[in-house]
Amino acid sequence: MRYLKELFSARELLSYLTMREIKGKYKRTVFGQLWSLANPLALMVIYTFIFGLIFRITPDAGDPSGLNVFALWLLCGLLPWTFVANVINAGVGSLVSNAGLIQKVSFNRIVLPLSLTAASGYNWLFEMGVLVVALSIVGGFVLPWIPLLLVIMVLLTIFAGGLALMLSVANVYFRDTQYFISLILQMWMYLSPVIYPITMVRDVSNDIGGLFGSPVTLEGLYQLNPMVHFIEVFRNLLYDNRWPDLIEWGICAGWAVVVFGLGLVVFRKNERNLAEAL
Amino acid sequence: MSDIAVRVDHVSKSFRMYHERNQTIKSAVMRGRTSVHDDFWALKDVTLDVPSGSTFGLIGSNGSGKSTLLKCLANIYYPNKGTISHFGRIAAMLEVGSGFHTELSGRENIFLNGSILGMSKKEITAKVDEIIDFSGVEQFIDQPVKNYSSGMFVRLGFAVAINVEPDILVVDEVLAVGDAEFQEKCVQKFKDFKKAGRTVILVSHDMGAIQTMCDHAAWLSHGELIETGPAKTTIKSYLDSLERPAG
Q1: What is the three-class DSSP state of A39?
Q2: Is A23 part of the contact surface with chain B (CB cutoff 8 Å)?
Q3: Fewest CB within a 10 Å sphere: which of A75, B44, B97, B146?
């Protein structure tokens, strides 16, 4: 509890460091904040071409929204995913790259990974705003769902922040972490229903039945991935325009709280040794 | 306890001297261990009180543990044994301009740096003109700091740090920044500090500076406290020990 209070007292520092990231990132670029859109848009074009046109993945039309645009369906899952990937990629090096600061000044170190999380969140908010506008233009009725959308965005930010806390500490002791993580992220993306709908996994799982004669199914294992549930909620809200299952909300909130709690514990335990370990 | 600003009680601090350090998972697995190390005791059972309102100098040769003690005082390192108690708000100035972002303007960096050093937004806003004035870079304050000369950079950093106005200020050899005029300003600022009843703890190799600024001093050698007391006598015995032929 006391730690949370400490955290709260560091909020001003957190906001300044976040501003530093946001303002510093696109300084001296001609397109500025628009670069934040470039990466997801490029991925959208590539994936739509390969998986939409060539592999002919056809997700169900939005129910009840009636939307049937692969590129937009893709973005509803891709933007949350790239956000998580960005937080992890930036967060993992946040302590190592600020080694000089940590060794010279005493301050609440937790603001370093958290400020990067917040800065990525800011960019993501911008991207999601553009997506909401695009969905509205093609006829989606997204606006009433925006409050709920913000709730799930906060949950995903907490989840990603918890991962950033753990990984930033791990990277101080093992510098492999940052290279290892880019591998993991690639696998994780293909194991999440970003470029294909979860119904395809369900079909395959039903064909196979219980794995090795056990009641464990492929889909059951697949559901262990928290991103499956987050993306499900995002697609429900944005693409289908319907209320997601309460269980899905529960699973997302559970993952967010557990991962962030674990991140805090790991960080707190190692915080005092950082200046020496770096 | 109002007459004591910092109490250092039987503090010991060790560092690991690695003969082998496996910071990659591959080597950790292959060798079956992450490191082989010996402990090196940088501070051995140091006990001292810093009187409140004093200017306290830490002296000693290179590697005597001065900076380690200073970092323990500044809450950057944590001692293995013993405790350090502060009576009042503490701020450390171990490096000037820590956390400056070179693409941001001088003004933005004042807020960023002040916040890192523990000032609230309100305090910084109240002090920002004074800081800019003290740094003497008014003309360029809205320019990105990457365009600053190195002198301007450290002066701005110093101006922020000195305006944190803690009860206890911990300073590591950062006094030698800027030109003669700026140094004059710094000395004046330290005098004001003292007048306001604040405590300053500083490390320096410049015995002249210590002699003129400090009223108390502690002499460390190889991690052990040799002598502590009034600055003059401590400095004298330290200098005497240097003149004495070895052995």
Answers
A1: helix
A2: yes
A3: B146
Query: Environment class of residue B78 by beta-carbon count within 10 Å: exposed (0-12), middle (13-18) or buried (19+)?
Result: middle
Homologous superfamily, domain B4-243: P-loop containing nucleotide triphosphate hydrolases (3.40.50.300)
Chain B residues with beta carbon closer than 8 angstroms to that of A23 = 101, 103-104, 108
Asked if the Cβ–Cβ distance from B116 to A23 is below 8 Å, we say no
Confirm if B92 and B202 have CB atoms less than 8 A apart. Answer: no
B75 with A100: Cβ contact below 8 A: no
Q: Is A11 on the interface with B (CB under 8 A)?
A: no
Distance from the first to the final alpha carbon of chain B: 42
For residue B247, pLDDT beyond 60:
no
Is residue A170 one of the residues assigned to a domain? yes
Is residue A223 one of the residues assigned to a domain?
Answer: yes
> In 3-state terms, what secondary structure has residue A249?
helix
Domain around A117: 13-194+217-277
A108: its two tokens: 């609440």
**ipTM confidence:** 0.77
Kindly state whether residue A211 falls inside one of the protein's structural domains.
no
Tokens of A76: 């509803």
Summarised one tens digit per residue, pLDDT across range A85-124 is: 999 999 999 999 888 888 888 888 899 999 999 999 999 9
How long is chain A? Answer: 278
- Cis peptide upstream of residue A64 (ω within 30 degrees of 0): yes
Among A6, A15, A16, A276, which would you mutate to test the B interface (most chain B Cβ atoms within 10 Å of its Cβ)? A16
Q: Provide, as residue numbers in chain A, all residues whose Cβ is less than 8 Å from the Cβ of B117.
A: 105, 107
Domain-embedded: residue A229: yes
Chain A hits for B76, Cβ within 8 Å: 102-106, 275
